[in-house]
Design a protein that fits this description.
single chain; 49% helix; Helicase, Ruva Protein, domain 3; three-stranded antiparallel β-sheet; 274 residues; elongated; 21% strand; Tetrahydropterin Synthase, Chain A; 10 strands; alpha+beta
């Protein structure tokens, strides 16, 4: 059966595969669209298996918010060329839209979600067959609160989502906090969120440095406590210097914007090496 241009276009629309790949699949399937789709899909599975040990360090991060709920995902690939491809970005957006609609509890549940008859995991594998690169849905995070905001840094490599304890937070204030998180990479909202093992590590580092500097043993605990306080100022969101005004910290900026305003949750994901 002769392969027509209309069939090629139809298969390309259905699979996202290249024109030549669609033509070859249709020829192999003797013009049967369903069989051709399966051929394209199997090619994707073969490529995914072959490249499973490759490093997918590039990709696209997108985030969105509806006012009280914010979510962000990272779809990864091997090269920046593929990451900037319009179809790859469109797939990332489609996955994010699904996450918004269904609000899955975790990444595994999101991967198992169905779009247009296929699981997200299968759609990613199919796209891998089109590009010839390893692809994986690597990160998915969400927050919810009285207010929420999402920020994507230009280039789609970094995003921050934030939830607040008050409704209708001023848009500029909300974005400022999201940008603070994106730029300064805090580990927790405040000191209560810092893991005990991290604090112990910081104390031991401070003590070791003090010993090397010849400080007496009876001062080491005090020096360690000072190091912990410094750590809180540098790495907990509310105690960090506000990036737009170093004279105040983030907690003071929020309280100035609205009495009692604070952050209840945040997530930050990135593809950048830090």
């Amino acid at each position: 059966m002769a392969v027509t241009m209309d069939d090629i276009k139809k298969l390309r629309t259905m699979t996202g595969a290249g024109m030549m790949d669609c033509k070859k699949a249709l020829a192999e399937a003797d013009g049967d669209i369903e069989k051709a789709m399966e051929i394209v899909r199997k090619k994707g599975q073969a490529i995914a298996a072959k490249r499973s040990d490759r490093d997918a360090a590039e990709g696209c991060i997108l985030a969105d918010c509806d006012g009280t709920y914010a979510a962000t995902i990272a779809l990864k690939c091997e090269t920046d060329f593929v990451a900037k491809n319009a179809d790859f970005i469109a797939l990332t957006q489609k996955i994010l839209d699904n996450a918004f609609k269904n609000k899955p509890a975790d990444l595994a549940t999101l991967n198992a979600s169905v779009i247009d008859g296929s699981t997200i995991d299968q759609l990613v594998t199919d796209r891998s067959g089109v590009t010839g690169e390893k692809m994986e849905l690597d990160m998915y995070c969400y927050v919810s609160g009285a207010s929420a905001v999402a920020y994507i840094h230009p280039g789609n490599k970094l995003a921050a989502i934030v939830a607040f304890n008050q409704p209708n937070v001023d848009a500029t204030v909300a974005k400022d906090i999201a940008m603070q998180i994106a730029a300064m990479n805090p580990v927790a909202i405040d000191e209560t969120g810092v893991a005990a093992d991290i604090l112990e590590r910081e104390k031991e580092i401070a003590k070791e440095k003090a010993r090397e500097a010849g400080k007496p043993e009876n001062l080491l605990d005090r020096i360690a406590e000072g190091a912990v306080k410094k750590y809180f100022k540098e790495f907990t969101l509310l105690e960090q210097e506000f990036i737009k005004d170093a004279k105040i910290n983030v907690a003071q900026y929020l309280d100035k914007a609205s009495k009692g305003l604070t952050v209840t949750a945040f997530k930050r994901i990135t593809l950048n090496q830090e």
